[in-house]
Amino acid sequence: MPLNSLHYTIGPAIAVAATAVLVAVCRWVFTPTRTRGNPDAPFQHADFGMLVPVATLRTSSEADRLRQLLRQHGIRSTSGTAALGPIQVNADGKLRRHHTAAWHVMVFPEDSMRARAVVAGTERDWA
């Protein structure tokens, strides 16, 4: 049987095609799902990790002023952007609704009662 140049290209072509199929299958299998739960579900059970939200404010500068006030009372705090959606925390720790960008001020659970008392008692000083 005579050998021609076609025999030397068929083997590598099959190897490249098999590798491409394996890569496509691996990408399909190992791609993470894009759904992160039900987007229509209310945010009643927001997860802040170990932290407890004590107030939700409109701007980061208001959140920084509240954090300084809490720091003056010896309470460690942090702030972070609140997701756009139906969640807002008032001074009593209850969730309310909002539809604009906001900032949460959060503290550790053992400091939450004192922080809420500071927020409720000195609301006019930082707002």
TrEMBL record:
The chain crosses the membrane at residues 6-30. It comes from the Bacteria. The keyword Membrane applies. Keywords: Membrane, Transmembrane, Transmembrane helix. This is DUF2007 domain-containing protein. It comes from Protofrankia coriariae. The lineage of its organism: Bacteria, Bacillati, Actinomycetota, Actinomycetes, Frankiales.
